Amino acid sequence: LPVPVLWALSGSLVGKWFADVDESACIAVTFITAAAVVVPVTLAVAYAQSGLTIKTDILPAIALLAAGTILATGFGRVLYQKALTVTDNNNGFVSIFFLLIPGFTCLLSLWMSRWISELKFTVGPLFYLGLGLIAAPILVFLWQSKKRSSGRTALQEMDMKPGMSVDPV
Amino acid sequence: MPLPPEAKYVAEQSGLLRGALYALTTAALLATQAPLSLLGAKRLSAAEFICVTELVLLLCVPFMLRTQRSREHFRALISSVSNLGKFRNSAPDRAAGDRAICLRTWARPSHRDFGSPQSRSFLGGDHRLPHRREEDPHLLMDVHAMPGRGVCRRDASGGKSGRYLFPFRSRSLIPPHFWRQGWRCRCPSFGL
């Protein structure tokens, strides 16, 4: 729970406070300021715990971690901020698409499990229940937006109808 | 000139569509993190994991600053980071200066911040204004204030130029009676 909450809060606050600033520049500054605090602390903790011995057999795992971080936190964060900017900081609208993340993750894990055995998962009733819970808000959102757009179209048609009879005063 | 409602609606819809595309791409990108990070999370300790993640994010920074605009904004933002804990604006930057509050107002010498020991030491002397009526045109001045930084400058028309503590830390906190003649669009050089 804290991850999506803090993620959305960060997006909204950056969108509100730095609306006139380039999104990439903003996110780059947040990365640098966060790293300036977090990296020394984590380095010290890691050194105290294990002496910072990185073996060659974990290098592939680190490479995968780096790829995931660059794609998700690097590019993803900037795109999220761009989405908020073009929608005028409409976090509700943007966040609804994030409900698709578990679905995308499942598909990717299913494909990658051919090479990484740890990514295998069981597709059972609980899995489908979870997918249903994710799909429900998306369907509600779709239904509501369809209803609203059809209502608006009807209103426009009524406004533009030529030769409407006007009751005499 | 305000947009007609139809154009506004079309612009809004276009923004939402672009936002939806960005959000979908973001969702796809975010979905890659869990499967790609799983092995690293299993084989590294929590501190090592966080450290590697942060270092990788630092590597992304040069790629984020490819355009001239983003580099300019980055420089402005980074130079303002050092001012976070400070009340005094010691290193004003151009981008921040452009966003400064510019208003024409009357000095309020009775305000507690004017002439306080703090402001005197900050100003390097006693710049207390003579007590006059608030509407006195001699005290009319252009104020360039940095929101949240608490510093303003007086370009007094016919008066002495100086620095004064600006008691309002954001635009929204300025009381209505300060806004006598609305906003001025002049961007200050802000050579404080």
Describe this structure in words.
The complex is a heterodimer of chains A (169) and B (192). Chain A has 169 residues and is mainly alpha-helical. Helix content of chain A is 75%, strand content 0%. Chain A contains 6 helices and no strands. Chain A starts with a helix and ends in a 9-residue tail after the last helix. In chain B, the strands form 2 sheets. Chain B has a two-stranded antiparallel ribbon with strand order 1-2. A two-stranded antiparallel ribbon of chain B has the order 3-4. The longest helix of chain B has 27 residues, at 5-31. At the A-B interface, α2, α3, α4 and α5 of A face α1, α2, α3 and α4 of B.
User: What is the radius of gyration of chain A?
Assistant: 24 Å
Helical percent range of chain B? 40-55%
Number of helices of chain B: 6
- The assigned structural class of chain B equals mainly alpha
Order of helices and strands of chain B: HHHHHEHEEE
User: Strand fraction band of chain A?
Assistant: under 5%
Provide a brief overview of the structure.
With 169 residues, chain A is mainly alpha-helical. Chain A has helices at 2-17, 23-50, 59-86, 91-96, 101-112, 125-160.
Write the layout of secondary structure elements.
The complex is a heterodimer of chains A (169) and B (192).
Chain A: H1 2-17, H2 23-50, H3 59-86, H4 91-96, H5 101-112, H6 125-160
Helix pairs in contact in A: 1-3
Chain B: H1 5-31, H2 33-43, H3 46-64, H4 68-81, H5 94-98, E1 101-106, H6 117-123, E2 140-145, E3 151-154, E4 162-165
Antiparallel strand pairs in B: 1-2, 3-4
Descriptive labels:
heterodimer; A: 169 residues; mainly alpha; 6 helices; flat; B: 192 residues; two-stranded antiparallel ribbon; 4 strands; 43% helix; disordered C terminus
